[in-house]
Automatic annotation (TrEMBL):
It holds the Pfam family adh_short_C2. This is 3-oxoacyl-[acyl-carrier protein] reductase. Belongs to the short-chain dehydrogenases/reductases (SDR) family. Coiled coil: none annotated.
Length: 258
């Protein structure tokens, strides 16, 4: 199926590794030029080179931090100067503070502040700079990666749930305000997506990971491609009548009907 986005430009944030990088690959495979944004300049350059060689699209890495004003301003300058602005913005963010804890044990203001700035403020901050570049293009896609915990709170995930619920509300407001400009705003809410183990960052022990697979009717973890594919579909022409929605990618873990 032709997704109708060949030649468009996508910003993918938090994209030097993990889901962000895989989403950038999936969009580039559809002929989308990609702008990558994360803090590690060398890794970004490697990812951009890989994408350019593999898909024959433009891939530009802009090193920076989603929470830092000057960095996000620099990102906007690159997008406007080199592409006239983004058509598609995928808001991926860093993981919440590690290790995860029971809600009653989350009393450390520094952890709440870190979660707020990483999960909620960074998304609002980046979109605040991108929307003015998109408003007059007549077409746009805003897609935030949140968490299935927004729909069915998972134990020990309050730092994620609270602020991603905020992102979900923010995207709904944007959907209402930007629909008349041809811009849709949606969330993709993952859980149980297989993530390459990075030393010191795994939130779960091996036993916990085994137990988590049993939480879904499918009895397995999801792949990075299954997550990136849904994001890419939401970026497509065919998804033009979906806005203000959250698409869950969690193997049926959430037990509700909708
Ligand atoms: N796996 C799942 O099932 C699941 C479920 C629910 C939610 N999620 C969420 O999905 C998101 C992606 O997960 P992941 O496993 O792919 O994460 P990851 O492997 O830890 O990658 C995070 C990315 O964010 C970048 N980053 C971190 N802080 C940043 C900042 N301040 N500014 C710019 N870039 C920043 C990192 O690059 P640099 O270090 O180079 O900046 C890296 O590229 C996370 O928010 C995670 O909580 C995942």
């Amino acid at each position: 199926m032709d997704l109708g986005i060949n030649g468009k430009t996508a910003l993918v944030t938090a994209s030097s590794g993990g889901m962000g990088k895989n989403i950038a690959h999936a969009l580039a495979a559809e002929g989308v030029n990609v702008v990558l944004f994360a803090r590690s300049a060398d890794t970004l350059r490697t990812v951009a080179d890989e994408i350019e060689q593999k898909y024959r699209v433009r891939a530009v890495g802009v090193p920076g931090d989603m929470r830092v004003e000057n960095d996000v301003q620099r990102l906007a300058t690159v997008l406007e100067g080199e592409f006239g602005g983004p058509d598609i913005v995928v808001l991926n963010t860093s993981r919440p503070p590690n290790p995860i804890r029971a809600t009653v044990d989350e009393s450390d203001a520094a952890r709440w502040d870190e979660a707020y700035r990483n999960q909620l403020w960074s998304a609002i901050h980046v979109l605040g700079r991108m929307i003015p570049l998109m408003q007059d293009r007549g077409w746009g896609r805003l897609i935030a990666v949140t968490s299935a915990s927004v729909k069915s709170p998972m134990p020990h995930h309050s730092l994620s749930t609270v602020f991603r619920a905020g992102v979900t509300a923010y995207m709904k407001h944007l959907a209402n305000e930007l629909g008349s400009k041809g811009i849709t705003a949606n969330c993709v809410a993952p859980a149980l997506i297989e993530t390459p183990h990075r030393t010191g960052t795994a939130a779960y022990t091996a036993d916990q990971a085994t137990a988590r697979k049993k939480l879904t009717p499918l009895g397995r973890m999801g792949t990075q491609e299954e997550l990136a594919g849904v994001v890419t579909f939401l970026a497509s022409m065919q998804a033009g009548f979906i806005t203000g929605s959250t698409i869950a990618v969690e193997g049926g873990m959430v037990g509700s009907l909708f």
